[in-house]
Amino acid sequence: MEKLEEAELCFPQLLNASCKNHSRPYSLSMLIYILLSFVSLLTVVLNLLVIVSISHFRQLHTPTNLLLLSLAVSDFLVGLFVMPFQILLTEPCWFLGDLVCVLFYLLPLITICASLVNMVLISVDRYVAICDPLHYSTKISQKRFRICVLLCWIYSVFYSFMFLYDNLKQPGRYNSCFGECVINIIGAVDVVLGFILPISTIVVLYLRVFVVAVSQARAMRSHITAVKLQSSVTVTVKKSELKAARTLGVVVAVCIFCYFPSYCVTFSGSDLVMGSSTNLFVVFLVYFNSCLNPVIYGLFYPWFRKSVKLIVTLEILQSHSREACVL
């Protein structure tokens, strides 16, 4: 039987009340720091490009892009604040106090909740655009979606505070020793309201979009009379809407893939223990989703590539650059 190495205490002066400092190998710690720092910087830069593109160019001021802008803002906050703070949470000992521990989890919860609600709104937008295109302009407007985005963020803040209410009311109540940062997760409630409900809504709406898209594709291939009577402009619009639906479908699928392991851990009823390998993996996967979204835009959206080119070459500083053609 191998002899266990003696673990140092986080607070040696507290003796038995202190948590043990299970330090990692130096090389592993450096790898975690470098990886998180790189992904954080990449996330900030890519999402900032999305924010500037949609905000600056008038052609991109559409209801759908307004949702992408809101999603990019939440991803930008993840890269700017959440990921750097996560470096502190990777340490086995917590020295900043119980209240700061709870607050460290607040911003990630707000951004994660906002991302999921934005995904639901994106699915609703694509559903109306594909399944009820004749009434899209009347049902979906900039003003309505601005209100929806505002409500999305208000709901995310309220939900996160309510979710952490027990922990905020008595910080540190779930810690078993000094130097630990643990928050209690109400597994069933969070999984239902924060994952199953929004994901089910997204899946149902996209299944409907998929069915309609397939039927339209078959109709086009068979050259039925109804399609022949449509104008070429209408067909072009539908093709662009279908392409947007496919792209946003990829964004939603990647989001579900990245979030699913985290909610599996939550559903198990486990506490989020700072520095544990499981916690590090599922948290990094959730945060990495914020870096992947703008990469998907770059792969599938020509307007994003054109906008980035104009931004990088500083052509957006020229007069009338807001009117530039990027579509």
UniProtKB/TrEMBL annotation:
One of its GO terms (molecular function) is trace-amine receptor activity. Keywords: Cell membrane, G-protein coupled receptor, Membrane, Receptor, Transducer, Transmembrane, Transmembrane helix. The keyword Cytoplasm does not apply. One of its GO terms (cellular component) is plasma membrane. It is found in: Cell membrane. PROSITE patterns: G_PROTEIN_RECEP_F1_1 (PS00237), G_PROTEIN_RECEP_F1_2 (PS50262). Belongs to the G-protein coupled receptor 1 family. This is G-protein coupled receptors family 1 profile domain-containing protein. It comes from Channa striata (Snakehead murrel). The lineage of its organism: Eukaryota, Metazoa, Chordata, Craniata, Vertebrata.
